[in-house]
Amino acid sequence: MSQIKIDSSILSHSANKTVLITGSARGIGAATAALFNHHGANVVITDLAQFQDAAENLISSTFTNPQRAIFVSGNIVDWAQLTSCFKVAIERFGGIDIVVANAGIMESSPVLDVDLVDVNGELRENTEAGRVIDVNLKGTLNSMSHFHDLGPF
């Protein structure tokens, strides 16, 4: 695994700010959440419900300030669930200052496969492409729309 050296002064502005990070129970999102928390930010970890244990373990065993972090389950593709994530974050910490739209997925099969046919030889929809676009594009746009709606900055 590669490591990137980050100048601590870059994150000094995040002390006492609230950061909502999508897809942050594991991987890059989890490392980002831990870094913000270490620099004094309130951190809202949002991810699918199935990753709650990973998020809670991250908070309790890795975070410098675990009392300044919560997990809120939600799917960024589902508008109502994402709305709930933002509402819970605002209720708990009084607002959201930073959003990191980290959630994303890789394709599990070729998304540009245009030769998909059903048992009758008819062209069929590439559902994998739709899933990747939903999460990586629509989910990011949903996250940014909610944050923009909080304005003014």
TrEMBL record:
Family: Belongs to the short-chain dehydrogenases/reductases (SDR) family.
Pfam family, one: adh_short
Molecular function (Gene Ontology), one example: oxidoreductase activity
Protein name: Uncharacterized protein
Species for this entry: Penicillium subrubescens
UniProt-listed InterPro entries: NAD(P)-bd_dom_sf, SDR_fam
rRNA processing among keywords: no
Gene3D superfamilies: NAD(P)-binding Rossmann-like Domain (3.40.50.720)
Keyword Methyltransferase: no
TM region(s), chain numbering: none
